[in-house]
Structure formats: C-alpha cells, structure tokens
Design the sequence.
C-alpha cells in the first residue's frame, strides 16, 4: 500500500508533543515536500524512538531493506512492499520479518494521511486527506531497522535507519475510502495518544502489544475531505495547498457511518 503523509508546519508540533525530546542528526528537511510525502520515494522522515529513557527524533528512510534483499535488483523489486507492515504479522506469524523486529518500535508523527477512493463509473480515483478529530498532530506506530549488511548509500557506506508503519483492517469509514487495490480495506493503526506512548514502552509484552494492534479507531473520530491531487509537485489550479478540501461535481457521499466532518485544517 502506498500512503502519503501530510506533514506541515510540524517540527515545532513534534517538540511540543514529546517532553524533553532529543534531536539526533538534523538534516535539511523540505517541509514543502513533507506536505506530500510519498512512501515509494523512500526519503528520510522524522520518527520518534525511546532510548535510555528519553524520546529521540531521528531521520529514517521510509521503507525497510531486509537482509534477504541481498542484490540491488531484489531491493528495487521488494522494498516497495516494506513501507507498511500488517498488524497481523507482528505476533501471529513467527516466520515474518515483522515478528523478528517487533521490539524495534517507533512512532511516526503526522498531521494526516492521504488515501484514494475508487468510485464506480469514474475514470480516476479521488484522493482524500484523512486526519484525527481535534488532534493537530498524532502518531502512527511503526517499526524500524538498521541493515548492517547492505548500506543505504553504496557510495559512502552510510548505514541509515529505516522504518515501516503499521496497518490494520479498515474501520467502517476507511473501508469506503481505501476500497481498491492490492491492499484495499486497510488503514494505518490510529491510536489515542496514551496508547501511542505505550507503543514505545521498553517493557511492552506481546500481550500488551496485541491490545494496541487490535484497537480500532471509531469512525466518528476520523475527519476527512476530498482533495484535488496528491501526486506530483505541480500547484493546484486554484492555488490552494494540497490538503485543502476540493469540491467535485457529483461526488457520491460516503455512507451514514462516514458522514462528512468539516473540521478546520491545522
């Protein structure tokens, strides 16, 4: 699944969200790009880990390279499937790579995500900006990994951290939006803030993790709007930002469980 993270005016939001946050390895992060952060670009993105009792903000690449991807051809072919990790794989599938790295947990701070909706009779899918009600910023649980065998940058030999975000079966609202493709009817693991913080607990047991992984965010806690486009860097014809709502003539409404919530953008 290819999710786009909407991440804007955000570094200060992260600092306010996590007490006593340490900044590890600042880079030149393009906030304009952050408003439309495409998973398959495998660019660096801020993630939060807990080390030595303190929150750290690091810049990891989105999309993990596992050790079994031992040739450039395998990396190119397989890394795109490593930008998201299915929640069911972490505990229920002992052979899964996600099960092996389940203790390497991180949080991915976002202000929202983008996803496409397919509509019968429409040529193009309609993109939506999805966010949590009354939360200017929230965090998606993820996993991270350092590949000690394959450097992220073959020219310099630099070994960079990489991350994946956790997805789960979609709730009643997100089933209507993310309704097509190989990974249809899935959504990121959205949690209340207190449960987000539990995800980073070093003493988190598999039983505790199972409770977090099976949490379903109620549909009435999710806000959403159709937007013009999330692909490319070209400006919208109306001059508004990518996350601004866009009105499509004749757009069929979602079902009763997904009534539109017109909340202000952060």
Sequence:
């Amino acid at each position: 699944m290819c999710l786009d993270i909407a991440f804007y005016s955000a570094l200060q939001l992260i600092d306010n969200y996590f007490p006593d946050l340490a900044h590890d390895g600042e880079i030149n992060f393009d906030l304009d790009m952050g408003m439309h952060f495409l998973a398959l670009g495998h660019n660096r993105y801020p993630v939060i880990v807990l080390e030595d009792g303190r929150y750290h903000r690091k810049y990891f690449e989105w999309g993990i390279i596992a050790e079994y991807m031992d040739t450039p051809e395998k990396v190119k072919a397989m890394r795109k499937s490593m930008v998201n990790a299915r929640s069911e794989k972490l505990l229920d599938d002992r052979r899964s790579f996600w099960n092996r790295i389940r203790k390497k947990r991180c949080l991915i701070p976002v202000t929202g995500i983008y996803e496409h909706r397919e509509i019968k009779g429409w040529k193009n899918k309609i993109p939506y900006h999805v966010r949590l009600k009354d939360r200017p910023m929230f965090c998606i649980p993820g996993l991270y990994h350092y590949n000690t065998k394959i450097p992220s940058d073959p020219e310099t030999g630099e070994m960079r951290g990489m991350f994946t975000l956790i997805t789960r079966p979609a709730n009643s609202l997100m089933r209507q939006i993310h309704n097509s493709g190989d990974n249809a009817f899935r959504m990121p693991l959205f949690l209340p803030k207190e449960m987000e913080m539990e995800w980073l607990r070093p003493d988190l047991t598999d039983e505790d993790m199972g409770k977090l992984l099976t949490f379903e965010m109620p549909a009435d806690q999710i806000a959403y709007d159709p937007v013009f486009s999330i692909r490319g860097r070209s400006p919208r014809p109306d001059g508004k930002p990518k996350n601004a709502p866009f009105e499509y003539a004749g757009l069929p409404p979602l079902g009763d469980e997904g009534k539109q919530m017109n909340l202000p953008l952060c």
